[in-house]
Design goal:
It is built from ten helices and seven strands. By secondary structure, the chain is of the alpha+beta class. The protein folds into two domains: 137 residues, no CATH class; 123 residues, Histidine kinase-like ATPase, C-terminal domain (Heat Shock Protein 90), CATH 3.30.565.10. Strands 2-4-5-7-6 form a five-stranded mixed beta sheet, with helices on one face. Strands 1-3 form a two-stranded antiparallel sheet. The protein is elongated, with a radius of gyration of 30 Å.
């Protein structure tokens, strides 16, 4: 279920139950009029709106990214402030419905009791919201760890695939006598890629520059294999290096372009990697390769053919939610473009 929808369902059920319980106890103790009933309903609506406002503040200023002492201090101040506003709202509601009892409602003791009750309700709400956020983030982390483990194994499998090793070693073997220096370079590139695969940890994101270095090694190795059949072009804006991206994500898209694009063309083609910053501080990564899509890939496909693209889509969803996107499409009659949009900051709250 969508997290925002779940949030509103819980809000309505929670404060609806608050109104129901108050009406029930009032009717059992001394009876309740229609005016008093609606007063309780309006009070419940005020609680709903005020807690939603508190959620807006928490999300806008990213409270859950702050230290625990700072979070507790700000939370206590916010709850206390809302409690005082709640007391004023209760008085205005009673005035509006004609249920105000000045002799009793303005007593210091009554005001303090109402203030304490309001503070208690807001504190319980905030505690539940914090617990929901924590469990949701923990669940997302577990999903990501499971997926990254699966991805690591699949990536190692593809890197150590006999066909890949066969092509790489053949390229090196052909160079041993013709160009020993280039042969050593190829061996170094293979070593770097395998070392990076083996050392890839469970970090959700890495520096863009680290990912690009690995991709450069891979494309340099493929250039040795394809020789003049492969041309590589980089268009990287300086702003791109301030971003972090999921590890091996760009590598997967480039491998996909080689496997399904360049490898199928007798004359070879071009791999162009273009990275730029958007107007809303999003990083746009485009991998353009020679070739054509005969059918639109199934982004949810599983298995050998759909692994690279589906893995990319799922990892983007787990790390960035709805703030990241992936698309692949034909550009004219000679090229295919795969585009990833990555935000600068991650959003965890529902």
């Amino acid at each position: 279920m969508n997290r925002l929808r779940l949030y509103w369902i819980l809000q309505i059920l929670g404060w609806g139950s608050f109104a129901f319980v108050n009406i029930l106890f009032a009717s059992l103790s001394s009876g309740i009029s229609a005016v008093q009933l609606w007063a309780f309903v309006v009070l419940a609506i005020f609680y709903l709106l005020s807690t939603h406002f508190l959620r807006f503040i928490v999300k806008s200023y990213e409270w859950f990214k702050q230290s625990i002492p700072q979070l507790l201090f700000q939370s206590l101040l916010a709850i206390l402030a809302l409690s005082f506003v709640n007391i004023v709202a209760q008085i205005l509601i009673n005035i509006g419905f004609g249920t105000l009892r000045p002799a009793e409602d303005f007593k210091i003791v009554i005001i303090l009791v109402n203030l304490f009750v309001a503070f208690l309700y807001y504190a319980i709400w905030f505690l539940l919201y914090f617990l929901f956020h924590f469990l949701d983030s923990y669940n997302t982390s577990l999903k990501y760890e499971a997926k990254i483990n699966e991805f690591r194994l699949n990536h190692l499998k593809s890197q150590l695939n006999p066909h890949f090793i066969f092509n790489a070693l053949n390229s090196v073997r052909a160079l041993v006598d013709e160009d020993p220096v280039k042969a050593k370079t190829a061996i170094t590139l293979i070593s770097n890629m395998l070392r990076f695969s083996l050392m890839m940890d469970k970090k959700q994101t890495i520096d863009f520059s680290d990912e690009l270095n690995t991709v450069s090694d891979y494309l340099e190795l493929e250039t040795i294999r394809f020789e003049e059949r492969l041309t590589v072009v980089y268009q990287i804006e300086d702003e791109s290096y301030s971003y972090k991206i999921p590890p091996m994500m760009l590598q997967t898209i480039v491998e996909n372009a080689i496997k399904h694009g360049i490898s199928n063309l007798l004359k070879g083609g071009i791999i162009e990697i273009k990275c730029r910053e958007g107007l809303e501080e999003d990083l746009y990564i485009q991998v353009k390769n020679s070739g054509q899509l005969t059918t639109q890939p199934n982004l949810k496909a599983q298995g050998e053919k759909g692994h690279g693209i589906s893995n990319t889509v799922q990892r983007l969803k787990l790390v960035y939610g709805d703030k990241a996107s992936f698309r692949i499409f034909n550009s004219g009659t000679e090229f295919v473009i795969a585009e990833i949009k990555i935000p600068k900051q991650r959003v965890n709250l529902p």
